[in-house]
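Notes, Module 5: Reading structure tokens.

Key idea: the token line is not a picture. It is a compressed description, and you learn to read it the same way you learned to read a sequence, by spotting repeated patterns. We will look at two proteins. The first is printed below with its tokens.
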Amino acid sequence: MTTTMQPLQDTNVLVLGLGSSGLAMARWCARQGAASVTVADTRETPPQLAALRAAVPDARFVHGALDAALLQPVRADLLLKSPGLTPAQVAAVVEATRADGIPVAGELDLFTQALAGLRDTQA
């Protein structure tokens, strides 16, 4: 799904989808030192919104269409897509993100990156 991911430290992250995976990715990115975390969802009040505000108080939440216009007000160095979203739901924003040279990844990519980091520290 992704090209090579950069470390999350000082990265501006845009997470698409605020379900369980979206919340987990937002929390992980904040813990790893992301400069900013923005979470976008089509729902005005997704069930995980209160949990996001509690776990990542500095996170920005945006609701509306997941399309290329989403990138206008959001500065992103990395786009993370929730596995609960279909490719059709995010095609426009993913295409625009990739056209701007911004990596697109998902929850499993974060896990893989964390495992690689753990392996490197134990080597």
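Here is the second protein, with the sequence above and the tokens below, as before.
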Amino acid sequence: MTCKRHGTGQGSAQTVEKEKRSGREIIRVAKTVKEWKQGPPDVEAVRPGRCPGCGAASRPVGGRVVLHGHGTRSRQVLGPQEPGGTPRQEEVRVRRYRCQACGATCTVAPWEVWTRRLYSLAAMVWTLALWAVVGLGLAAVREHVSPWVHVGATSARRWRTPLKWVEAVEERRLLLRVRPWPAGWEARRAAAHVASAVAGHAPPSAPSPPLAVQAFWGAVHAA
């Protein structure tokens, strides 16, 4: 999986994530799930400036539109909308486009949506911070970030999903701006490194410490 920066028709930089096995890509725009649901963008508003597959201009001067709207698709997103907020299960209709030049498809979604992840990007970082920086156990952390109350006995005792997120960061499949850590670090230490690094990307408008809160708000800038 590779990521790069790409523009929309409005010229703003967006994050593009490519799924090599499927040939499809996700383009994340600077909108939260909440903003997206309150005012879903029309097909023109978030049309990428170029096809992320072949690079063809989506609307060449004097020519026909190359990147056509290809309907919408439902995506589920879990987690709180702010640090300490009530965990929610949201459904958002993301936009799809298809290139008339190469046939590739791409999806445009809020910045919190990540390929093959149910939780929002901010919720993932918040989880790692609560576990590795604040010091909560994973079972307790799950109560802060998951809207699902009923889980199996084994899952309740050992929530392993955050460990997979740490592995994804280490393998450069998640939070690409986080620098690698030394080989051999145990997962909790690595998670603390991730949370601290992401907190460093929090915007000036973000609340002051604690670090876990800054990590939540820094997630969008560390993708």
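Summary for the second protein:
- The chain has two domains: 2-110, 121-221.
- The two ends are 14 Å apart (CA to CA).
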